[in-house]
Amino acid sequence: MPPEPAQSFAVTLRVNGQSFETEIDARTTLLDALRDRLHLTGTKKGCALGQCGACTVLLDGKRVVSCLMLAAMAEGREVTTIEGLARGDELHPVQAAFVEHDAFQCGYCTPGQIMSAVGAIREGRAGSDDEIREQLSGNLCRCGAYANIVAAVRDAATREA
Amino acid sequence: MNAIIGQPVSRVDGPAKVTGHATYAAEFDLPGLVHAAMVVAPIPRGHIRSVDTAAAERAPGVLAILTHENAPRLPYHQIPQRPQVDAQSGEQLHVLQDAEVRFNGQPVAVAVAETLEQAVHAAELVRIDYARTPALTIFDPARGRPPSEGNVKAGRVPELGRGEAEAALAAAPVRVEARYTHPREHHNAIEPHVTIAHWEGEHLTLYDKTQWVDNDRKEIAHVFGIPEERIRVVSPFVGGAFGSALRTWPHVTLAAMAAQRVGRPVRLELTRRQLYTSIGFRPHSEQHVALGATKDGRLSALKHEVIQQVGRYEEYAETVLSPTSHLYSCPNLLARYRLVEMDTNSPCPMRAPGVVTGVLGLEMAMDELAVELNIDPLELRLRNYAETDEQKGLPWSSKELRACYATAAERFGWSRRRPEPRSMREGDQLVGYGMATAIYHSDRSAATASVALTGNGGAVVRSASSDMGPGTYTSMTQVAAETLGLPLEQVRFELGDTNLPYAPVHGGSVTMASLGNAIVAACGAAQKKLADLARAAQQGPFSGLPSEAVAFHGGGLARADGSGSVVPYAELLRQHNLGWLEAEGSAQPGEETKKYSSAAFGAVFVEVRVDEALGTVRVPRIIGAYDVGRVINPKTARSQCIGGMVGGLGMALEERADWDARFGRVMNANLAEYLVPVNADIGVTEAIFVPNDDRNFNPLGVKGLAEVAICGVAPAIANAVWHATGRRIRQLPITPDVLL
Ligand code: FES
Ligand code: FES
């Protein structure tokens, strides 16, 4: 018999510079907390197994798959999601490049791709097409927009540099 | 005003998608929303002996546990004319209606709880005792049988052909013959299938992942035995589907059932593992191709037999014989289609269903024939170019395949290919060039749209269509903007809601040819309504004029002779004290289907690099040229094509459901073990559109685009692997273990 589940408890999550107090369950992943408790649904669930990258967010500036992290572990850390990139109506350069280069079709993997790209560029790991391909290979795109994703990230990386 | 059709416009929904503000089915935030988790059967066939839900019911947060013992009995009325997206014979799964287990992975219970974690936990606590009975879990071609009547009526025929194929084959001076297989493949759209069901009294709203809201509504109305008017389906964004969301799967019924039971909106999201059994897949296929030819490379006989797996409770069949019937000129042809029943969830359409399979066998066999004849593979195709559809005995509505061959070959540098295998190298890598033809029949269906001209000078265009990624939002906005003579920004297109005018299925590459023309008609109807008002007015510049004396251009109405000024839409509305004016339009296939055969064509060229020490195949370049008729938006069209190339590469080199026959189960039901292409697998992918405008097929001149883009890619890669290595791998995927 599996153990009795834990009671729910309150946590404070820092997301996109804002503090959110929310009730979670010990088993709640960061991904589910973002989507279902905070209603920040820009972060996507593709597999919930750490295999697709759709749920990628930045945790203290580093890329993580939020489906493999418990929400409770994110307390006291700074989470950045796709909703936190644009300044008002002005898209972040990576977002703008994705639109310009048509780096998606259905758009479902896109927030994860963009967060990975932002992370990779910040870490200085988007220096060549091959490096971009490698760095973004944890983000599956079943629509197959890869060539356009590489073009968009290259473009944004050069613009930001 | 500049043309808008044909411009590489960026997606109108792009900003919503890149900021996370596009709302997919799981993301509708309904007050009181609760969660459901499914329990699925772990045996391939048998029945449930007993169910124990006591522990699950006691678990925290649980609202209900539904099993076949306590689920409502649903009428499951037959739909008089089965939708073409459904299996055409047999009976769909009646979920939780009896104790039978028909396949491994069949939903047998559902737990509903306040939170997702609680629902998942409760589902784990449901105890079910099964009695297993012998199951058909092995694909045995000897058990192949023809498709049954329902499928034959829907065009999935057991046989087709012309002339005397057997005799011609026996007499042919040159012959090749081989067997090709591809495994069961899964769509694996990144968005899981998910439904939120919400009852308000007798009215049900479904927020669902679907490629066809109108049909989703119809199916659930029949399952529950309630009038369609009481159901609304909402689906503004679909996170990829590739055919998996064409029909309505059992979990949609489960979500509606659960929501009814608990009196709260319920979300049921399939897990990645469940996506291998709760929706469909591309069926495992084996095929045998025999080609006979003259010494100068003219096909004299073509025999093609395809055998596919099919579920036992219902029968899904595909148009696998379609490409064989008309891709090449050949007087003697015999094609045969057989199905092997297995205890599995039902297969379903996956991008270019059937056709991608038929093209695979035919195009690999053509490559083998080219070798046998010592003729360049491209030249062999040109020598057997089908000037007409020889099976239907009809001319093509248009065919620019020669231009596709020439353009792609030139761009690729095909002339640099040395004919002998293993003759090209780069460092320690073997280099191979391969090519194949692509074809997908073009269809259109009846569609309706409405256009509202609004007081602010813009227009809102609506139809219950879908956009699973090709860019329906954008391309339909372009069509409407150009037809109305308005700038793109002034036009908004809405889709994905059964409250909107009827749209056909968003699949089979029919959307633009169907709905695009309906939008043109709706724009025309709105313009006519407005012009009629202006002409009937007591005063004003158009008062009393006959209809031919006025015309719309430049965003308003003017005299047809060019005298006087253009009165913009908004001004006309104001003059008649109207806040807005709306009209509907429709379009449907006409006589053209009797006069012509229509298809989209393509030529795909690939380069592979094979590392013999590791058995790895890399694909640095895929170049395709396509005749898809008129291209509404080259930017999004190109994305569809390169997406098809990626899908085809997956099919050639990576994708395979590993089947455990002991349990009738897919063993690698997740994205780490069922391999799909990742970014680092993809090199240059380039799509070129050859000019065409097929007005014989429909007024907009478009054909279809999505499906043709995946056809031909896998055989081109397999052919290139032969060229690189001299080894003909006839079983996909070509993984390193096979090549070593
Ligand atoms: S949802 Fe987290 S990696 Fe797929
Ligand atoms: S855009 Fe659809 S999965 Fe990437």
From TrEMBL, chain A:
Tagged with keyword Protein biosynthesis: no
TM ranges: none
Domain of life of the organism encoding this protein: Bacteria
InterPro entries, sorted: 2Fe-2S-bd, 2Fe-2S-bd_dom_sf, 2Fe-2S_ferredoxin-like_sf, 2Fe-2S_ferredoxin-type, 2Fe2S_fd_BS, Aldehyde_Oxdr_Iron-Sulfur, Beta-grasp_dom_sf
Domain 2Fe-2S ferredoxin-type: 9-85
Pfam family, one: Fer2_2
Swiss-Prot/TrEMBL keywords: Iron, Metal-binding, Oxidoreductase
PANTHER family: OXIDOREDUCTASE WITH IRON-SULFUR SUBUNIT, OXIDOREDUCTASE, IRON-SULPHUR BINDING SUBUNIT-RELATED-RELATED
Protein's name according to its UniProt entry: (2Fe-2S)-binding protein
Organism: Belnapia mucosa
From TrEMBL, chain B:
Organism, as annotated: Belnapia mucosa
SMART domains: Ald_Xan_dh_C
Pfam families with a match to the protein in the record: Ald_Xan_dh_C, MoCoBD_1, MoCoBD_2
Protein name: Xanthine dehydrogenase family protein molybdopterin-binding subunit
Domain Aldehyde oxidase/xanthine dehydrogenase a/b hammerhead: 19-134
Domain of life: Bacteria
